[in-house]
Design brief:
The complex is a heterotrimer of chains A (about 350), B (about 575) and C (about 130).
Chain A: H1 2-40, H2 56-65, H3 77-93, E1 106-108, E2 111-113, H4 124-145, H5 149-180, H6 185-190, H7 209-222, H8 234-237, H9 247-272, H10 284-287, H11 294-319, H12 325-353
Antiparallel strand pairs in A: 1-2
Chain B: H1 3-11, E1 16-22, E2 27-32, H2 37-46, E3 54-62, E4 70-78, E5 83-91, E6 97-99, H3 108-119, E7 122-124, H4 179-186, H5 190-194, E8 201-206, E9 218-224, E10 227-234, H6 242-246, H7 255-259, H8 266-281, H9 287-316, H10 319-340, E11 349-350, E12 353-354, H11 360-384, H12 388-394, H13 402-407, H14 412-416, H15 424-427, H16 448-472, H17 490-495, H18 497-509, E13 516-524, E14 527-535, E15 541-547, H19 549-555, H20 557-561, H21 566-576, H22 580-584
Parallel strand pairs in B: 2-5, 6-7
Antiparallel strand pairs in B: 1-2, 3-4, 4-5, 8-9, 9-10, 11-12, 13-14, 14-15
Helix pairs in contact in B: 3-19, 8-9, 9-10, 9-16, 9-21, 10-11, 11-16
Chain C: H1 3-38, H2 45-48, H3 68-91, H4 93-120
Helix pairs in contact in C: 3-4
Classes of the chains: A mainly alpha (about 350), B alpha+beta (about 575), C mainly alpha (about 130).
Chain lengths: ~350, ~575, ~130
C-alpha cells in the first residue's frame, strides 16, 4: 500500500511539473512569437504590460478568463463546449511519453523511478499518434457545432488537412522505427547516443533526412500553422473553426495549438535529432568529472532542440504566404506521400543490407 | 469640325440632335435622341473609324425646368484612336427610361445601376437593375435629383441604433432571410437558377465586417464547396453623397472632400479635382507648381502602391511585407507632413497651384528616400517574387483578358496587367509627365501576378520621375496669378486692406467659372480618376460626377471571381486595390 | 513472469498515463467552470447571432457539404490502416530478415497500386 502511495505521489509530482512546464511554455510562446515576429518586422511587439511586455501573456490569460463566453444561437451547446476540451486534452497528454532527459533511475524508499519521463510505455509513438488524432475531432466538432458558415468551412478544411498530413507523419516515422526497432521514445532516443552522426537524421545506413523534412512540414500542417493555417486563415475565413468562440473556450483552442507545437517539436527532437543526447559523445559535465550532474546538460540539449523547432515555426510565419486549399492537398498527397513512401522502401532495403551489429 | 462628328451627323441624320467640338478643352460632345441611343452606341463601338471600345463613365444630370428633364451622359474612350467623346441623351420626367448599353459594354452594368439609383432613370434591357449605393429598400426617391431635399434627418433616423438590453435573447431560429429578400442577391442571371435543384450551394456573406474586404464592402458568394459559383458585390456602405454635397459647395470648398474619396491617396484626388476645375476655367499653372504637383502625385502613387502591396501580401498571408511597406510609407508621410502639415487627408493642391513650396530641406530628404527605396523594393521582391507559394497563389488567378478588361472599362494597373498600355499620363500628358523620361509597364497574361509586377515596376518608374522632376524643377511662383480666382497670400491679407477685401470676396462668394462642362481624367494609383463638372456659371458646380476607378472595377468582380476558390476571393480584392471611400463616394 | 505480474507491470506503466489524462480533463472542465462562474453574462439576440460579417445569415449553416471532403476522409482511413501495419513490421524488422522484407515490399506494392489508382482516378485532385 505504501509502495502504491509513493508511486502515485511521484507520478502526480511528475505530472504537475510537466503540466506546469507545458503551460508556462505555452504562455511564453505566445509572447515569444509576437516578439520574434515583431523584431523580424522592424517593430517592438508588446511593450505595455510589464517591462518589455513580458507580462502580456498573463494579461491575455486573465482577460480571456474573465470574458463573457458566448454560445451562438442555434449552436449545439454540448458539442460546442466539448470541442475545446477535446482539442486541448490530447495536446497535453501526449507529453506523458516524452523523455525530457536521460533514462536514469532513481531510488526512493526502495522504489525505482524514472524522473524524466512520466511513463516509458513501449508503444510511445503509437500512443501519441492515436491521441493527436482525437484533437482533430475537437476542431471538426467546434466548427460544426457553432452553426456558422465560416466555422463550418474552417472545420471541414481542418479535418481534411489534418488527416491528409497525419498520413505523412505516420509514414515519415516508419523509417526511424526501422532503424531503432522500437516504438518507445526512450529507446529510440537512447539508440542515438554517441554524437550527432548517430542521430537518425544523419545516421548510417540511410540518413532519415527526407523523413525529417516530411515530418517537419507535415507537423507544421497538422498544427495549422503558417503556411498551412488554412483552417483559421483570418483573411478568408475570419478565424475558421473558432470564429464563434470567445473567452476561455477560445483560450483552450489557443493553448491546444501551442501545446501541439511543443509536442511535435519534442517528437521531432526525440526521433530525428537525438533527443537529450549532446551532439558529441557523452556530456561535457560528465567528462569534467561530475557524472551525477550530466542530466542537466542533457535536459538543456533537449530543450535547446525543442526551442529551435519552435523558433522555426515563428520564422515560417514571418516569411511565407499562405497556401491555397487545393495546393495544400496536392502537396500533401502528391509530393509528401511519395517521398515518405520512397523513404521507407530505401531505408528498409538499406537496413537489411547493413543490419545492426 | 472633327471628322468623327461629321460621320456621326451624316450617318444618323435624325438621331444626332447636335454635335459640338470644344476646341480649347479638346472635347467632343454629341446630343442624340434617347430612343436611338443604342444605334449610335453600337456604331461607335463597332465601327473601326470610331472604335470606342472603352466605356469610361455613365452619369446623369437633372434639369427640372426642361421638358426633357433628365440627361444621361456617356463618356467613351477610343483606345486605338486615343479620342474621347461624350454622348448625351435627354429623357422626360414622366417616363425616364432609356435603352441599356450593357450589351455593348459590360462595364455599363454598374454605371447604369448607379444612375438608376441616384437619378431614377430606368434602363430598359438592363439585366439587373436595382439600387447599388443606396440601401436596397430605400424608398425616398433618388438623391441626385435637384428636388431631393438636402436637409433634414432623413432615412437614417428610422434606424434602431440602440440595442434593446431589456428584452430577453431570442433564439435565432427565424434568423433566415425571407425568400424574397434573398432573391435580391440571386436575381442576376442563370447561375443560381440552373442549380436551384442542387442544395449543395452555400450562400455566404463576405463583408461588410470581414478582415479582408478592404473596408466595408460586402460580397454575397454562392459556393459549391469552396468554389465560387457567383459573387455579387453589395456596395454603398460608405456612401456619403459627395456628389450631392458638392452641388452646395463653392469650388474651393470641394477640395477637402476629395481627400476623403480614396483616403489612401488624397493627393491624387486633389490633383484630379483641381485639374478639372482648371480645365473648366482655362487656367494655366506656373511651371514650378506643375513640377511640385507631379512630384507629390508620384510620391502619393508610391504610397498607394505600398499600401496595396502590404495589404495584398497580408491577405495572402505574408505578414512581414505589410509591416515593411508601412515602414517606407511612414517616411513618405513624414515628408508630406513637412510639406503641408497633414499626413492622410492632405488638402494640399489649390486651384491654380499648390499650397506650400518644396523647401531645400524637403528636396534633400526626398533624395535620401529615393536613394534607399529601390533597395527596399528589392527586399519585397525577395520575399515575394522569389517565393513559390506567392507565385502559385497569384499566377493564373483572376485572369481577365485585354478585350474583357477594356469592355468592362477597367483602367490603371488592372488594365495594364492585361497588356493594354493605357496610361492617362502618357495618353494625355499633364503636369511634368511629358518633360521627363519614364515607361509604362505592361503585363502579359492579365493575372494577379502580372498586376503585381506592373505595380512594382510602377513604383520604380515613379522614383525615376521624381528624381528627374527634382533635378529639373525651376524657381518661380507656386500658384497662378489670377486675382479673380485665387485669393491673395495670407501675409498680404494681414497687412493690406485691399487684399483683405479681395480675400473676403473670394471666400464668401467664390469665383464664377464660365458656363460649360468638362471631363478631366487623371491617372490615380488605382486607375483613371475622372471629374466631370457641369457649370451653370454660378460659384457652385451644377453637377459634379466623380468617375471612381474602384467603382468601375467592382463591376468586373463577378466576372473575375467565378470559378475560383474562396481563397482566391481575397486575392482578387487585393489585386483590384479598391478603396471603398472612393467606390461608394 | 506470471500473468498477475505482467498485469501489475502494465498497470504501473499505464497508470501514470491514466492519471495524466484524468488531470488534463479535470483541468479543462474545472477551468471552464471557474471561468463560467466569474464571467459576466449579457446575452442579447444580436450578440448571439452567428457571425456572418455583420449581415443576417442567409440560412442555417447545417447543410450537406460537398462529397469531396468525404473522399479524402475515406482515402485517409484506407491508407492509415495500411500504415499501421507497417509499424510492427518496422519494429521487428531485424528479426524477420529477407522474408519480412520481401513480404512488406509486396504489401507496399499493393499500397502503391491503390495510391496510383486513386491518383489516376482523380481522387487526389481537389477539383
Amino acid at each position: 500500500m505504501f509502495e502504491l502511495g509513493v508511486k502515485v505521489a511521484f507520478s502526480l509530482a511528475q505530472i504537475g511539473v510537466v503540466f506546469g512546464i507545458v503551460l508556462l511554455t505555452v504562455m511564453f510562446l505566445t509572447l515569444a512569437e509576437r516578439k520574434v515576429i515583431a523584431w523580424m518586422q522592424d517593430r517592438m511587439g508588446p511593450m505595455e504590460v510589464g517591462p518589455y511586455g513580458i507580462l502580456q501573456p498573463i494579461a491575455d490569460g486573465l482577460k480571456l478568463f474573465f470574458k463573457e463566453d458566448i454560445v451562438p444561437a442555434g449552436a449545439n451547446r454540448f458539442l460546442f463546449s466539448l470541442a475545446p476540451i477535446l482539442a486541448l486534452v490530447p495536446a497535453l497528454i501526449g507529453f506523458a511519453v516524452i523523455p525530457f532527459g536521460p533514462n536514469l533511475t532513481v531510488e526512493l524508499f526502495g522504489i525505482q523511478f524514472k524522473p524524466f519521463v512520466i511513463s516509458d510505455v513501449n508503444i510511445g509513438i503509437l500512443y501519441i499518434l492515436a491521441f493527436t488524432s482525437i484533437g482533430a475531432y475537437g476542431i471538426i466538432l467546434g466548427g460544426w457545432a457553432s452553426n456558422s458558415k465560416y466555422s463550418l468551412l474552417g472545420g471541414l478544411r481542418a479535418a481534411a488537412q489534418v488527416i491528409s498530413y497525419e498520413l505523412n507523419v505516420g509514414l515519415a516515422i516508419v523509417g526511424v522505427l526501422l532503424l531503432a526497432g522500437s516504438l518507445s521514445l526512450v529507446k529510440i532516443t537512447e539508440a542515438q547516443a554517441g554524437g550527432f552522426w548517430h542521430w537518425y537524421i544523419f545516421a548510417f545506413p540511410f540518413p532519415q533526412i527526407f523523413a525529417f523534412v516530411v515530418y517537419v512540414i507535415s507537423a507544421v500542417a497538422e498544427t495549422n500553422r503558417v503556411p498551412f493555417d488554412l483552417p483559421e486563415a483570418e483573411s478568408e475565413l475570419v478565424a475558421g473553426f473558432f470564429t464563434e468562440y470567445s473567452g476561455m473556450r477560445f483560450a483552450f483552442f489557443f493553448i491546444a495549438e501551442y501545446a501541439n507545437m511543443i509536442l511535435v517539436s519534442c517528437i521531432a527532437a526525440a526521433l530525428f535529432l537525438g533527443g537529450w543526447n549532446a551532439p558529441y559523445p557523452g556530456t561535457l559535465i560528465g567528462h569534467l568529472g561530475f557524472p551525477h550532474f550530466a542530466w542537466i546538460e542533457q535536459v538543456v540539449w533537449f530543450a535547446a532542440k525543442v526551442y529551435c523547432f519552435l523558433f522555426l515555426f515563428f520564422w515560417l510565419r514571418a516569411t511565407l504566404p499562405r497556401l491555397r486549399y487545393d495546393q495544400l492537398m496536392r502537396f500533401g498527397w502528391k509530393v509528401m506521400l511519395p517521398i515518405a513512401l520512397g523513404n521507407i522502401l530505401v531505408t528498409s532495403i538499406a537496413a537489411y543490407l547493413f543490419p545492426k551489429s | 469640325m472633327h471628322p468623327l462628328l461629321e460621320t456621326l451627323k451624316a450617318k444618323f441624320l435624325d438621331a444626332v440632335l447636335s454635335a459640338n467640338e470644344d476646341r480649347p478643352r479638346a472635347e467632343l460632345s454629341v446630343r442624340v435622341a434617347a430612343d436611338r441611343i443604342l444605334d449610335v452606341a453600337t456604331f461607335l463601338h463597332d465601327d473601326p473609324t470610331a472604335a470606342f471600345d472603352h466605356i469610361t463613365d455613365i452619369c446623369s444630370a437633372d434639369y427640372p425646368e426642361d421638358p426633357d428633364r433628365f440627361e444621361v451622359i456617356y463618356h467613351l474612350l477610343s483606345l486605338p484612336h486615343r479620342t474621347r467623346i461624350r454622348i448625351k441623351a435627354r429623357v422626360p420626367e414622366e417616363d425616364p427610361s432609356i435603352a441599356s448599353v450593357t450589351g455593348i459594354w459590360k462595364g455599363a452594368n454598374f454605371m447604369e445601376r448607379e444612375v438608376y439609383d441616384l437619378m431614377g432613370i430606368r434602363f430598359t434591357g438592363h439585366p439587373d437593375l436595382r439600387r447599388i449605393l443606396m440601401p436596397e429598400d430605400y424608398d425616398e426617391g433618388h438623391p441626385l435629383r435637384k428636388d431631393f431635399p438636402t436637409e433634414g434627418r432623413g432615412w437614417r433616423s428610422q434606424f434602431e441604433f440602440i440595442p434593446r438590453l431589456d428584452e430577453p435573447a431570442s433564439a435565432m431560429t427565424e434568423g433566415e432571410v425571407p425568400e424574397d429578400e434573398k432573391r435580391a442577391f440571386l436575381s442576376v442571371d442563370g447561375a443560381s437558377r440552373a442549380t436551384a435543384y442542387r442544395k449543395e450551394e452555400l450562400l455566404l456573406n463576405m463583408g461588410p465586417q470581414h478582415p479582408a474586404t478592404h473596408g466595408v464592402l460586402r460580397v454575397v458568394l454562392e459556393l459549391d464547396g469552396e468554389r465560387i459559383v457567383k459573387a455579387t458585390p453589395d456596395l454603398g456602405y460608405l456612401h456619403r453623397g459627395v456628389e450631392k454635397l458638392s452641388e452646395g459647395l463653392a469650388y474651393m470648398q470641394i477640395i477637402p472632400h476629395t481627400d476623403r474619396l480614396d483616403y489612401i491617396c488624397s493627393m491624387t484626388n486633389n490633383y484630379a479635382y483641381v485639374r478639372a476645375v482648371e480645365k473648366l476655367l482655362g487656367l494655366t499653372v506656373p511651371e514650378r507648381a506643375e513640377y511640385i504637383r507631379t512630384i507629390v502625385a508620384e510620391m502619393q502613387r508610391i504610397i498607394g502602391h505600398l499600401f496595396w502591396l502590404g495589404t495584398q501580401a497580408l491577405d495572402i498571408g505574408a505578414m512581414t511585407v505589410f509591416f515593411w511597406t508601412f515602414r517606407e510609407r511612414e517616411v513618405l508621410l513624414d515628408l508630406f507632413e513637412a510639406l503641408c502639415g497633414a499626413r492622410l487627408t492632405l488638402n494640399y493642391y489649390r486651384i491654380g497651384g499648390v499650397d506650400s513650396d518644396f523647401t531645400p530641406d524637403l528636396v534633400s530628404r526626398t533624395h535620401a528616400f529615393l536613394d534607399t527605396f529601390p533597395d527596399h523594393i528589392r527586399e519585397y521582391d525577395e520575399l515575394l517574387q522569389a517565393n513559390r507559394i506567392w507565385i502559385a497563389r497569384t499566377t493564373k488567378v483572376a485572369v481577365i483578358s485585354a478585350a474583357d478588361a477594356i469592355n468592362f472599362g477597367l483602367t490603371g494597373p488592372v488594365l495594364r496587367g492585361s497588356g493594354v498600355a493605357y496610361d492617362v499620363r502618357k495618353l494625355e500628358p499633364y503636369g511634368a509627365y511629358d518633360k521627363v523620361e519614364w515607361e509604362v509597364p505592361v503585363g502579359k497574361n492579365g493575372d494577379t501576378y502580372d498586376r503585381y509586377w506592373v505595380r512594382m515596376e510602377e513604383m520604380r518608374q515613379s522614383c525615376r520621375i521624381i528624381r528627374q522632376c527634382l533635378a529639373q524643377m525651376p524657381e518661380g511662383p507656386i500658384i497662378a496669378d489670377a486675382p479673380q480666382i485665387i485669393p491673395p497670400p495670407k501675409e498680404k491679407v494681414m497687412r493690406d486692406m485691399e487684399s483683405l477685401i479681395h480675400h473676403f470676396i473670394i471666400f464668401t462668394q467664390g469665383f464664377k467659372p464660365p458656363k460649360g462642362e468638362t471631363y478631366c481624367a487623371t491617372e490615380a494609383p488605382k486607375g483613371e480618376l475622372g471629374f466631370f463638372i457641369i457649370s451653370d456659371g454660378s460659384p457652385r458646380p451644377y453637377r459634379l460626377k466623380i468617375r471612381a476607378p474602384s467603382f468601375v472595377h467592382m463591376g468586373a468582380f463577378d466576372h473575375m471571381a467565378r470559378g475560383y476558390l474562396i481563397s482566391d476571393i481575397i486575392t482578387i480584392f487585393g489585386t483590384y486595390d479598391i478603396v471603398m471611400g472612393e467606390c461608394d463616394r | 513472469m506470471s500473468g498477475s505480474d505482467l498485469l501489475l507491470d502494465y498497470l504501473s506503466r499505464y497508470f501514470p498515463i491514466l492519471l495524466f489524462i484524468g488531470i488534463a480533463l479535470a483541468f479543462g472542465v474545472v477551468t471552464l467552470l471557474l471561468s463560467y462562474l466569474v464571467q459576466p453574462k449579457f446575452p442579447e439576440s444580436e450578440k448571439l447571432s452567428p457571425y456572418e460579417c455583420g449581415s443576417e445569415p442567409f440560412s442555417d449553416a447545417r447543410m450537406p457539404f460537398p462529397v469531396r471532403y468525404y473522399i479524402f476522409a475515406m482515402l485517409f482511413v484506407i491508407f492509415d490502416i495500411e500504415i499501421i501495419f507497417l509499424y510492427p513490421w518496422a519494429v521487428v524488422f531485424d528479426k524477420i530478415g529477407l522474408i519480412g522484407l520481401v513480404e512488406m515490399l509486396v504489401f507496399i506494392g499493393l499500397f502503391v497500386v491503390a495510391y496510383v489508382y486513386a491518383w489516376r482516378k482523380g481522387a487526389l485532385e481537389w477539383d
